[in-house]
Amino acid sequence: MGSFKIISIFVLVVIFFPSFHPKCGASASAEEAAALFKWKASFLNQNNSFLTSWKLQSGNAKNSSVLPCTWAGISCTDGSVNRLNLSDWSIKGKIPPEICNLRNLTHLDFGINQLSGPIPVAMGNLISLQFLYLCQNNLTGAIPKSLGNLTNLIELYLYENQLSGPIFKEVGDLKFLTDMELGENQLNGSIPISIGNLSNLKTLYLYKNQLSGSIFKEVGDLKFLTDMELGENQLNGSIPISIGNLSNLKTLYLHNNQLSGPIFKEVGDLKFLTDMELGENQLNGSIPISIGNLSNLETLYLQNNQFSGSIPPTFGNLNRLVDLKLFHNHLSGPIPSAIGNLISLQLLSLSENNLTGAIPKSLGNLTKLIELDLSDNQLNGSIPASIGNLSALKVLYLDNNQFSSSIPATFGNLNKLVNLTLYQNHLSGPIPPAIGNLISLQFLYLYQNNLTGAIPKSLGNLTKLIELDLSDNQLNGSIPASIGNLSTLEAGGSKAFP
């Protein structure tokens, strides 16, 4: 009976004295409001419509007690600002040191603005911060070492600024960090070994900077890492074998550096890998056959290196592969017929190697192929008629090889073709009239072959043609009047005869 009375009294109090309920922001800090308002006053674009609610005096006395928790972009807990989201507000100005007055901040998002100047050292005092987004601004100067004090930080986004100097070694103290994105800045120096301490890290983006030195072997300790992008820097040395321990890795971008040595065979253990870009380096040795184990791979870029040996037939296992670039290496031997198994392939570039033998007929199975570049090799034999099956093809480069025999009439099926280059081969016979079916064609280069016969009248159907070069052949007869239909042909872009 006594407990019933107590409950009844509590209900009456709640009904008649609603202010008894705790309200979010009921005792918002005047210090926080003043700091934010002072910062707003420094903005170079005061007419920003997002900031109209940022006023120290409210028309409603009841609301004035909860400033700044009623302001746009601000959330509070227990009367203090804990979230500040001003993303994509077109703010022009600097980040003030007074930001440290917001001591209970857990989320800070100033991304996609026009903020300039340095990141304040005082930002390291925001020890409750979990999410810091300053990306896509014009911030300059070094990343302050004081950010190493933010030991609760989970995500750090500083990409697409103009930050310079080294990456602070104290970053290794941010034990809860899962995402670190510092790409597209002007950071230099070596990548700190202390990053290897970040055992929860999933994303590491340091691309498009000026980082130098080697990739530290401790990177192999980041067991949860799914995305590592270090491309477009000045990194040197070999690719550490320890990367083979990153069993959760999906993306590996190391392109456009100065890396040397071979690709370690343990790369075949990265079973979840979907994208591997190692192009534009000085890597050498043979391409490991273990890459054929990467059954989830969609992109493989190994171009512009010094790889030798043959293309592994195991590449035929990569049935999810969409893009394969191996151009500008020292690869030799034939094109494996197993490449014809890659039914998802849209781009195949094997140019500028020392490949020999005939084009496998199986390439005609790649019906999703948009670009095929086999130029600048030592390929020979006849061009297979099965190439005519590639109905999605827009670019076909077979120039600078040793192909003989005739141009397949099945090329007339390639009605999406824009570029066709067959020059500098040993092709003979007539130009097939079916070439006139290629109504999307803009560039047709057949020069320096042994072609004979007359120019087909059907070439007059190629009304989108910009350049036509048939020179250095053994063509005869009269030039068909239909060539006059080619109104888009550039002056000097047509060479029918030598």
Automatic annotation (TrEMBL):
Coiled-coil ranges per UniProt = none
| This protein's UniProt keywords | Cell membrane, Glycoprotein, Leucine-rich repeat, Membrane, Receptor, Repeat, Signal, Transmembrane, Transmembrane helix
**One protein family per Pfam:** LRR_14
Query: Which SMART domains does this entry report, sorted A to Z?
Result: LRR_SD22, LRR_TYP
Topological category with respect to the lipid bilayer: Single-pass type I membrane protein
Judging by the UniProt lineage, the source's domain of life is Eukaryota
Compartmental location? Cell membrane
Q: Which residues form the Disease resistance R13L4/SHOC-2-like LRR domain?
A: 361-489
Keyword RNA-binding assigned to the entry: answer is no
Tell me if Glycoprotein is a UniProt keyword of this record. yes
Write the signal peptide boundaries.
1-26
What is the protein's major site of localization?
A: membrane
- Please provide, in alphabetical order, the Gene Ontology terms of the cellular component aspect for this entry: plasma membrane
Give all residue intervals belonging to the Leucine-rich repeat-containing N-terminal plant-type domain. 30-77
- What are the recorded Gene Ontology BP terms? defense response; response to other organism
Family assignment? Belongs to the RLP family.
| Listed name of the protein | DH200=94 genomic scaffold, scaffold_1560
Q: Which species does this protein come from?
A: Coffea canephora (Robusta coffee)
